[in-house]
Design a protein that fits this description.
The complex is a heterodimer of chains A (232) and B (399). Chain A is α/β, with parallel strands linked by helices and 232 residues long. Chain A is 34% helix and 29% strand. The chains are: A alpha/beta (232), B alpha+beta (399). Bound molecules: adenosine-5'-triphosphate (ATP) and magnesium ion.
Chain lengths: 232, 399
């Protein structure tokens, strides 16, 4: 499993704020192999989210090259990028981003609905993932009837239902208590052991150390990278 | 996205805001109902007038003195125009496709009979007038086929004139005076009632030559001709022109077919229907503004959801379609409700006020629903475009 999945070459992303130019990403180079587990740490405003958004094709870099599975994705159209996002990338957010009027099962089903997958297959897949995540008895609950940990598990189920290769999690435990946070990280790590590449942005050094590659960002630059032994 | 899922998703968004969706749809419904109701009345009036008009009989061609090619002024008054004469009518009778000819002069005069008086319309007509108008005497006979130039002074009364002058007395054989001249009553027309405000029953028919004398006219006002059903109208007109030009030396008359008259009437009435429809359109416009407002609010409320959809792989176009779909569904449902309201209201109105003719053609129903959908599209396009063009990162950051 050491073929390059993500390659960022000299990626720069600047924001014009008034007169000033803010370098959210400043000449970032990064190579990620399939199945890698990265944590991204750094002070607030150091560009962690921006990095994730660029990798997730929600944001376009100003300069530099981004290869995803050997495709130069920066030059693709919005529609082509959306397709890749749909098939290859799963997002997990600090605030869960569940649709409040849909049940847990419907929230999980949503990406498949948007992708135009047939109802029978959708139903099968949702049932399976609900079972695997232990949410079967919560299937018909709305988000406001779920605990924070349960919500994030629904969000993870939704992010993985399209069987993506990469999971991007921006402070996935930020809104959770210690125990639920740990459970969530365990779910994500299990997915990683099954082969999915995992990128987690976190402020928690303890969580950061769990990743095999620990990246530290400052002022839009990757300042250092630590290689940890994978903890079981 | 599959069409079924698209509709379900869209419907679901509307249902999750049941109250405001219903209120917005009601706005469209009222607009559609107003348009349908008003155009139903307009169209009912249209059909009514056309129906009345065709009661004058069919397959009629009218000849009038003068030409209408010159604009302004009474062309008939020009000295070069020869008046239409009784002989012109006689000559037209020789055309094979022509069934009946009626030479007409019309005026008002005092009628005196049975020691009572009444001012009424006097029609100077030929003996074939009943054939042309399909309007026959109820008792007695119509004017006989006398010598056209000096017919006997006979009169056929309209049913109302008969009632006013003679009441229950049998008027046949009685003498009456019209403008001082004596006429003998030989018949009474069947009652036809009012047609387009003209009371045909309040009139007296006398021979054309007598009426010309009475009103001091040297020419006819009009010659009406009835042709055989199925005859080629253009051929009939050509024959008529030939005959009349032979007599007059030039074309100093105007030939108008009943179809042409109906066409003019029809287009006037169409404008009327359209005008009342446009009046109802104002409330439809207001309904459209309602959809625009609600869709703008919906986009604002769901910014973070839009960001999520983008992150889940929805391209801009899909976001656009989702919001357009909601706007269209909202107004389409409102439109259907409005159709029920409008058609039902029209039926009810027709039932409550039988004198008011209402008629809702199917084409109006389809047109109204199509308009509702179009309004949904127009009202939805701005908010939907805004939704599609949101920056997904900004959108995701919004709570
Ligand atoms: N839309 C924007 N307009 C202007 N500046 C922006 C915008 N988005 C991000 N930035 C700037 O880019 C820099 C990096 O932002 P980013 O959100 O990536 O930081 P972060 O490391 O995720 O911070 P945090 O830990 O607080 O989430 C910051 O200085 C931020 O102010
Ligand atoms: Mg961040």
């Amino acid at each position: 499993m050491n073929e390059t999945q993500i390659q960022l070459d000299n990626i720069t992303r600047t924001y014009q704020v008034g007169e000033e130019k803010v370098h959210a990403l400043d000449n970032v180079n990064l190579r990620i192999e399939a199945g890698d587990y990265l944590s991204i740490m750094g002070p607030s405003g150091s560009g962690k989210s921006t990095l994730l958004n660029v990798i997730g094709l929600l944001d376009r870099p100003d300069t530099g090259n981004y290869f995803l599975n050997d495709t130069a994705v920066t030059s693709l159209t919005e529609e082509q990028q959306a397709k890749i996002r749909q098939q290859t990338i799963g997002f997990i957010f600090q605030s869960f981003h569940l649709v409040p009027r849909l049940t847990a099962a419907e929230n999980i089903e949503l990406p498949m609905l948007l992708a135009g997958i047939a109802p029978t297959e959708r139903k099968q897949r949702v049932e399976k993932v609900l079972h695997n995540t232990g949410l079967s008895d919560r299937a018909n609950h709305r988000p406001d009837q779920l605990s924070g940990g349960q919500r994030q598990r629904v969000a993870i189920a939704r992010a993985t239902i399209m069987q993506p290769q990469i999971l991007l999690a921006d402070e996935p435990t930020g809104n959770l208590d210690r125990k639920s946070g740990e459970e969530i990280i365990e779910v994500l790590e299990t997915l990683n052991t099954q082969g999915i590449s995992l990128l987690i942005v976190t402020h928690d050094p303890e969580l950061g150390r769990r990743a095999s590659r620990e990246i530290k960002m400052i002022d839009g630059k990757i300042q250092s990278e630590l290689h940890n032994k994978q903890s079981p | 996205m599959l069409l079924k899922d698209f509709i379900k998703l869209t419907l679901f968004s509307l249902i999750s805001h049941r109250m405001r969706s219903i209120l917005t749809a009601v706005g469209i419904a009222i607009g559609i109902a107003a348009v349908v109701l008003l155009t139903s009345i307009g169209e009912g009036l249209h059909q009514y007038v056309m129906g009345e008009f065709s009661q004058f009989g069919s397959n009629i061609i009218s000849v009038q003195p003068g030409t209408t090619q010159t604009h302004g002024g009474n062309v008939a008054a020009l000295s070069t125009t020869r008046p239409l004469a009784l002989e012109d009518g006689e000559a037209l009778k020789k055309i094979p496709q022509i069934v009946a000819v009626n030479s007409v002069v019309q005026g008002n005069a005092e009628v005196e009979g049975n020691a009572r008086q009444r001012r009424t319309t006097i029609y100077g007509v030929g003996p074939q007038s009943p054939i042309v108008f399909e309007f026959y005497p109820a008792i007695g006979k119509f004017l006989p086929d006398d010598n056209t130039a000096s017919p006997r002074p006979y009169a056929v009364l309209g049913s109302k004139v008969r009632d006013e002058l003679f009441g229950d007395i049998n008027p046949l054989g009685k003498l009456i005076r019209i403008g001082g001249n004596r006429f003998r009553v030989i018949g009474v027309m069947e009652s036809k009632g009012q047609i387009l405000g003209i009371d045909l029953d309040d009139s007296v028919n006398i021979p054309t030559a007598r009426a010309m004398e009475l009103f001091n006219r040297n020419g006819l006002m009009e010659i009406q001709v009835k042709y055989t059903p199925g005859a080629n109208v253009d051929e009939v007109i050509a024959s008529m022109k030939r005959v009349l030009i032979a007599k007059h030396g030039r074309e100093d008359f105007t030939i108008v077919t009943q179809d042409q008259m109906l066409e003019v009437l029809n287009s006037i009435l169409n404008v009327l229907t359209f005008a009342v429809g446009a009046l109802g359109g104002i409330s439809l416009f207001v309904g459209g503004i309602g959809v625009l407002t609600i869709m703008s609010i919906a986009v604002n409320e769901r910014v973070s959801e839009i960001g999520l959809f983008r992150a889940l792989g929805a391209p801009k176009n899909q976001i656009l379609l989702i919001f357009l779909g909601e706007a269209v569904l909202l107004s389409a449902l409102g439109g259907m409700f409005g159709l029920l309201l409008g058609v039902g209201g029209a039926q009810l109105l027709g039932f409550a006020i039988p004198a008011l003719p209402v008629y809702t053609p199917w084409s109006f129903v389809f047109f109204a629903e199509a308009t509702a959908i179009l309004i949904g599209l127009l009202a939805g396009v701005l908010p939907a475009r805004r939704a599609a063009n949101l920056d997904p990162i900004d959108a995701l950051r919004t709570e």
